[in-house]
Design goal:
Elements (H helix, E strand, L loop, with lengths): L13 E8 L4 H6 L8 H25 L4 E4 L1 H6 L1 H9 L3 E4 L14 H16 L5 E2 L8 H9 L4 E2 L9 E5 L2 E5 L9 H4 L1 E2 L4 E2 L5 H18 L2 E6 L1 H4 L2 H17 L2 E3 L2 H13 L7 E3 L10
Parallel strand pairs: 1-2, 1-10, 1-11, 2-3, 4-5, 5-7, 6-12
Antiparallel strand pairs: 6-7, 8-9
Bound molecules: zinc ion (ZN).
């Protein structure tokens, strides 16, 4: 059961967003700034995303008529213009995902600089401000929320306080949170990356993905919101994507779902509020004034 379920367009039972974070090889450059450029195994593992997986993913989306959201570090926007052009050509959305996938909390001293440098790339290359933001490694602090408010973002997608979209309010304004969680992220089942301290036993495609589909079943039954947070270089690999593609086909054929870009979901929520049909649960920030032990 979900309290306060959202009425979805055309009576759909569940909203679905398969969101891709196209991090490419930014991860190795940011974690090993001195020699990441010369570590060819992680460079190639990342480059597989924009060069091999993105065309494959976009091809599926085009065939099935889906428009989805992608989050791309600005350095990757500059580095992989063909992938970015293809994403935009397909009618998909590109959100802010840092400059070089720097952790916004670890880089607090330069947080604004990196955030705005990335924003400049969006303006220059994509020609507008992104509607949404997802923090690298989900690391958001209140200063990040303040930056989002200051720059007129409509939503964040990094936090975990609900099953369905909700609103976050500060003294400066309000935005939507499109909530994530680790059960719908492909990092735990599929990533194996010793250079950044991530050594997980890689699951079989069917095993790793089965966990996602169980998350979907629960959301579908409750009339909720199902979002995957996945990476082209992980879930866009041949065997995994083959199974995702089959799931998409079957879901579209047998279920009443609304696949949408996150910005479209924000539009829909705005419309519901305007008409007085529904209003979101509101989380007010800050949660705490300081360390809880004083
Ligand atoms: Zn990322």
């Amino acid at each position: 059961m979900i309290q306060n379920p959202i009425p979805w367009p055309n009576g759909a039972k569940c909203a679905c967003a398969i969101t891709f974070d196209m991090d490419a090889d930014s991860l190795i450059h940011v974690s090993r700034p001195k020699d990441g450029h010369d570590r060819l195994y992680p460079v190639t593992m990342g480059k597989y995303g924009p060069t091999v997986a993105i065309p494959r993913i976009l091809d599926t989306y085009k065939r099935l008529g889906l428009k989805q959201s992608f989050f791309v570090p600005a350095w990757c926007i500059e580095q992989y213009p063909e992938a970015v052009e293809a994403i935009l050509k397909g009618g998909h959305e590109i959100g802010h995902h840092g400059y070089l996938h720097e952790d916004p909390i670890e880089t607090t001293a330069d947080q604004r600089m990196w955030f705005e440098r990335a924003l400049d790339v969006h303006q220059k290359v994509i020609g507008g401000k992104p509607a949404g933001y997802r923090a690298p490694v989900y690391n958001v602090n209140e200063a990040v929320i303040d930056l989002l408010m200051e720059h007129g973002f409509r939503y964040d997608s990094s936090l975990m306080a609900d099953d369905i979209p909700y609103a976050m309010k500060t003294q400066d304004g309000e935005l939507y949170e499109m909530p994530v969680h680790w059960g719908t992220d492909d990092w735990p089942p599929f990533a194996h990356y010793s250079e950044i301290g991530y050594m997980m036993p890689v699951k079989a495609p069917s095993d790793g993905l089965q966990a996602f589909w169980e998350e979907f079943d629960a959301q579908y039954e409750a009339g909720g919101f199902f979002m995957l947070i996945v990476h082209p270089f992980l879930t866009g690999r041949l065997a995994r994507w083959r199974l995702v593609e089959k799931w998409l086909e079957e879901t579209l054929n047998t279920k009443n779902v609304w696949f949408a870009r996150l910005e479209e979901i924000a539009d829909h929520l705005d419309g519901l509020r305007k008409s007085g049909t529904w209003s979101p649960r509101v989380d007010s920030l800050p949660y705490y004034d300081g360390p809880v032990l004083g």
